[in-house]
Design brief:
Blueprint (H helix, E strand, L loop, with lengths): L5 E8 L3 E9 L4 E3 L5 E4 L6 H13 L10 E8 L5 H7 L5 E3 L9 E2 L9 H13 L4 E6 L2 E7 L4 E9 L1 H11 L19 H31 L8 E5 L12 E3 L3 H14 L9
Length: about 280
Amino acid sequence: MATPNGTWLLLDIGNTHTVAGLALASQTSVQLIPSLEIRYRTDPAITADEYRASLSQLFAFKPDAPSFESITHVLISTVVPALETTLRDCFKNIPTVLIQADCKRDFQLALPEPNTLGADRLANVAGALSRYQPPLLIIDAGTATTFCLVDKNRTYRGGAIVPGFETSFRALTSKAARLFSVELKRPISAVGNTTETQLASGMIHGYEALIEGLADRLIADLQASAPDSFQSPTLIATGGCIRALQLSPRFTIDPDLTLQGLLRYGELNFLQNPLGDSS
């Protein structure tokens, strides 16, 4: 097995944006470096050479970042199948794990087709379980907004998917001729008195209500079917669109959750004795 020492590259590749992070690993610890996180647009048509050059240039803008050539391990969560071959070619000489259901993990999947669960959701569950005690409800607000439920036995039980905040806004303004695109600023009141403020209210207050309401319904339904394994869940929210929303205090906002999940997959798949492993 490859030695864990060195610099780990973590890639969370979404349909719209990619978040890249770095972690430093030694025999005794693996630490994410939040100050070195970068965010850029996902390009499904990029070549392996272009991807390598682009990452190298992006990290070069971070004064304290190690050189791209020093990367020793790569962890990837991608929901863009067209990029998988490109990524394998880009990192063909570096130990690399593309997160999928058959990777080593420390939770179970109670699903009829576990291989269909997105890599981002697998990473979110891994990250949440490394920081919080289950049961858990995890919300990731990106191109789509996903809800994941994990019971007290560390078993993923299911969830829901809805169109994302920005996705919904773009779809509405592109299809409705009179609803021109406006800058979304939080209105003081949910009651708007102009087209602009009503659109902002519907999008911002409405989307917050969607997350709050669907969270309540998911929790109620799982508690009804599994009353002993899903009492008093911890609610966690992450994702690029979460900064535009104001959820109730019952939600813990965790911006680095997916990268933390990639780090946990790295511990389990690269280290001979995973940190925090109870086995």
